[in-house]
Prior knowledge:
Blueprint: E1 3-11, H1 17-29, E2 33-35, E3 38-46, E4 62-65, H2 72-85, E5 88-90, H3 93-98, H4 101-110, E6 118-121, H5 132-139, H6 145-152, E7 156-160, E8 170-172, H7 175-183, E9 190-194, E10 201-208, E11 211-216, H8 236-253, E12 257-265, E13 268-273, H9 283-286, H10 290-306, H11 318-324, H12 330-344, H13 347-357, H14 361-368, H15 372-385, H16 391-407
Parallel strand pairs: 1-3, 1-4, 4-5
Antiparallel strand pairs: 2-3, 6-9, 7-8, 7-9, 10-11, 10-12, 12-13
Helix pairs in contact: 1-10, 1-14, 1-15, 6-7, 8-12, 11-12, 15-16
Amino acid sequence: MAEVTRHIGLSLGADICWPLCFEHMMKRLDLSIPFEGDTLRFDVERVTIEPFDLKQPVKYDVVVDRLTHWYHTSREWIKKSIVMNDLYVFNNPWSVQSNEKHTSYAAMMQLGMPIPETWMVPPKSYDPNPDLKPTLSRYAKLFDVALIGKEIGYPMFMKPYDGGGWRAVTRVKNAEEAKKAYEDSGTSVMHVQASVEGYDKFVRCIGFGPQTRCVLYNPDAPLHDRYTRERNFISQADEEHLRKVTLTINAFFGWEFNSCESLRKNGVWHPIDFANPCPDSQVTSVHYHFPWLVKAYLRWSIFCAATKRKMRKTLDWEPFYLIAKTDMSYEEKLDAYAKIADFRFETARFDEFCKNHLSHLDDVANDFFVTTEAKDAVRQKVTALFPAHEVEKFTELFWGRIQDWRAQGCP
Length: 411
C-alpha cells in the first residue's frame, strides 16, 4: 500500500476568508484515506497566474475555480488543462463563459419550469462599428418598451441579459419608468421580465455538487443581512422541490457550484435567477451560513480529488429534452431530471464516501470556528471591504452569527 498525495488547487481572486478556513481545516482534518489499495493524503496550494506552455503538465487533481467568469488568463489555463491534462475543475469553464442568464431562462422554460415571462430588447446605445448603421437601417424595427411592459404587465424588472450581483436591475412600475430605465441602460442588452407579485417566500438554494442549502433571502436588506438566519421556514417537501430544481439546473449546465433564487406564489415555486456559477462565498454576505459553505467546499473537493472524478467535458442536454417532450406532469419531469442530476453528481457514492471518510468534519468545523485563526479570517475579509472605523463592529457582528451557528448545533 503506497502513500499517494492528491493535489487540490485554489484558483482565487479577491477571496480571503473561505480559502483561509479551507486551508486551516484541511490541516486539522489530517486526512489519511484508504482508497483502492493506497493511502491518500492531500495537499492544498493556491494557483498562481503566470505564462504557461500549452503542453506543460499540471500537478493538480482538482482545481476550485473562482476566476474563470471574469479573468481570461486563468480561464484559458483551466481550459487547456482540462483538454490536455484531464484536470477536474468546478465549474465547467466553457459553460460559465457561454451560458448566461438568457440561455438559462430559455432552457429551463423548455424543461417546463415556471419561469416568469421574459423578453429581450435590443440595446439603447451602441459602440461604434462600421457595419452598425447599414445593419440597423436595414433590419432594426422601431419599438416602444412601454408597450412591451403593458403586454408583460407592470410592475416588471429590467436587467442585463447576462447580469450578476444585482447589476443594473430596475423594478419598473409604469410606462414612464420603463422608458427611463431603458434610456439609462446604455449599451447593455436588456431583459424585461414579469414580476412575481404577491409571493410569500424568497429562497436562495445554494448547490455544491450534490449538496444543497436553502436560505430565506431578503433582497431589500443591506448585503450583510440578505441571507437571513431563519430556520424551518419551508416544509421538507418544498425544500426537496428546490433541491431538485437546483440540481437539475446545475447538472444541465455543468455548474456544480451555483445558486438558484426562487419565489413561491400560491404554492408554486418560480425560479427567477439561477445563472450564478461561482456565487458569493464571503463571510460578509453569508455569515451564519459560512461554516456550512466551507464544509461544502471541503467535502466536494476532497471527494473529487480522492476518487479522481472525471470532468464531463460536454454538457449533453438531450436526456433532459427527451423528458421534456413527454406528457408527464411538471413534478414527474422534475423527478426524472433530478435522477439524471444525482447520477451525474454521483450522489450515492458521495454520501457513502463522506460517511466513511469525513464523518469527523462536523466536529472539526465546530472546534475550528471558535479559534483565533477563524476569527482572523473573518477580520481580514471585513478589513478588505469596510472602512477602518467599522472593522471592529462588523467583525464582531459576523463572528457572533458564526457563534450562533455553533450554539444551534451547527445546522
